[in-house]
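note to self — DONT lose this again. spent like an hour looking for the file last time. sequence + predicted structure for the chain T wanted, 116 res
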Amino acid sequence: METRRWTNPSHPQTLQIAVFLLYANAVFGLLFGSPFRLFGVLGFLVVVAYGAGGFGVANDQNWGYILAVAVSAVVLLASLRLGVSLNNIITLMFDVALLVLLIHPQSRSYRSIWFT
């Protein structure tokens, strides 16, 4: 019997926190608007990518990890490109933390062993 899960307690701490941040970004993007709220459909796709990436990582799927890293990097680069103001500094810190957690050596080694 194959099970789907929203979180995976067997993951290393770096991946568990990254999954929580991916879900949090998706929820806050829906509630308060994504970083790309000015771009309409693109903003919605970013929110969906956050949620799908978190779900894929929680279920040990390689596509989920790749999607999570890609959307995190794109959002971080776009945030830096649009400029950093005092209002966005906390958002920027969470974007940096998410990307660092995903590409941390412990996360990458776990991914290379266990993800399919």
